[in-house]
Amino acid sequence: MDRGEGSQLGKDTNWEHCLHLYEEIIASDNESLQIKATIKLGRISNDVPENVLTRAIPILVELLRRPLTLNNSNLSIQEASSYCLSRIGHCQCGDADLILAAIVHSGVVPLVLSFLQNSSQCLLGLYFDESRRYLLEILSALALMREVRRVIINSGGLPFLVESAKKGSIVSRARDAHAIGLIGATRRVKRILVELGVVPVLAELLGIGDTYTKIIAGNALGIVASHIDFLRPVVEAGAIPLYAELLQRTEPIAKEIAEDLFCILAVAEVNAVSISGHLVRILQGDNDEAKAAAADVLWDLSGYKHSVSIARSSGAIPVLVDILRNSNGDVREKVSGVIAQLSYDEVDRGALADDGVIPILVGLLQDELEELKDNAAEALINFSEDPLLRDRMSEALDIPSFQSVQTRLIRIRATDQHMVTHLRQMSIEQFTWDPELS
Q: Which InterPro entries does its entry note (predicted)?
């Protein structure tokens, strides 16, 4: 909107009088004046009180329902109305939810979907491309409401939501991405969205958006990707490096989204190899928060049963040992967990020993952090049970913290042979589960 025009309005504006004048103009036969007044209302909508806007909404919807007419300017009242409704739907005045509810209850959603589905009729005049954008923005503004999402799904409106996410302002596209994430929980809808090309749309937003948009798009793409059938298009859209960038952002939610998506994609071994390469590069950097997050993901990935060792193939092991030797705080704690998990694999265990991890782990048995000591002891127990490495363990065997964890671990193994670590194990079944069938 033209903020200069809206800024002329003050607290003393008689909005009731303005609404009455607008109603009089709409009741007149002067369509040119109706168009001008409706566009003006859209431009100043951020300054108009919500009670005035909610009373104007039914008038605008009725204008949208009018039979198509064109005036000398080639601009229709329907286009002016769609523009005004799109502005009101995105305005920041008063109670936005109340305004959106008023638009929904006016019956505009089926009307907008009908117009979009019958676009070949060029319903809104010669400037149809612009009018279509207004209609898509109306849909975008309303799509966060549950009842509207239901209508979108049941009325064949998903293509328009995806189309809306491709164009328009970043704010509008982020709203569409949020709605897509809310809609994409079931396998049936995921498949439709993927077939409509939503994956590259969300990946683009993840790459070009501001922080908020990256988080929204990243979360939506993770929801769509959370099925084994849809991993490939996500990777082909270039998502892995984009999520690696998200993992390095300062916002905790950004890191969580990236971690979750990596754990989903890593079900496929080729993806796990690619992801681990990005994780190693992060671990070699100087951002401690990002390094801790990367170690967390590598901790998860090291529990997958792939044909190759992800840690060894990515060159992670010497990097992890170096961090354990030289770092402090949360990073070292996370890395100790990764090393404890890797120590269950015979070849990884040998690689860790060759990189000098055993004396470092022995030193950590004296650390003040209980989890760090437990992780170090857990790894050392696995080293002590390896005939090829047992002779390097004499220094640790008499340390009380090592003996305590050893006793506890033996008890756990005796109770359940499968509970060898507290690592979160991921399985393909988690990604083929369909809530529609439960």
A: ARM-like, ARM-type_fold, Armadillo
Whether the CB-CB separation of 301 and 267 falls below 8 Å is answered with no
Q: What are the distances in angstroms from CA 2 to CA 7, 42, 245?
A: 9, 10, 36
Q: Which amino acid is at 61?
A: V
pLDDT digits (tens, 9 = 90+) for 227-251: 888 899 999 999 999 999 999 999 9
Structural domain range at position 95? 26-66+76-118+126-155
Mean pLDDT of 331-350: 92
DSSP symbols for 126-147: S-HHHHHHHHHHHHHHHTTSHH
Cα 128 from Cα 78, distance rounded (Å): 11
Residue 168 is assigned to a structural domain of this protein: no
Residues 235 and 344 both lie in one domain: no
CB 236 within 8 A of CB 200: no
User: Each residue of 239-297: pLDDT tens digit?
Assistant: 999 999 999 999 999 999 999 999 999 999 999 999 999 999 999 999 999 999 999 99
Of 68, 57, 160, nearest to 114 by C-alpha is 160
- Residue 394 to residue 64: CA distance in whole angstroms: 84
Same structural domain, 98 and 220: no
Sign of the alpha-carbon dihedral angle for 226, 231, 233, 238: positive
Is residue 102 located within the same domain as residue 51?
Answer: yes
Do 242 and 377 fall into the same domain? no
CA–CA distance, 254 with 288 (Å, rounded to integer): 15
What does the CA dihedral 41, 44, 48, 53 come to, rounded to 10 degrees? 30
**The whole model's pTM is what?**
0.81
Residues 6+ apart with CB under 8 A from 358: 352, 380, 383, 389, 392, 393, 396
- Residues 263, 275, single domain; the answer is no
Q: Determine the distance from the C-alpha atom of residue 302 to the mean position of all C-alpha atoms in its chain, rounded to a whole number.
A: 24
Any domain includes 226:
yes
- Classify residue 85 by its DSSP letter: H
- The Cα–Cα gap between 213 and 316 comes to 31
- Based on the fold, state whether residues 238 and 287 are members of the same structural domain: no
Residues 382 and 365 in one domain: yes
17 falls within a domain: no
Burial of 299 from C-beta contacts in 10 A (0-12 / 13-18 / 19+) = buried
The structural domain count of the chain equals 3
Helices then strands (H, E): number in the chain? Answer: 27, 0
Q: Do 376 and 306 sit in the same domain of this protein?
A: yes
> And the tokens for 414?
């005796």
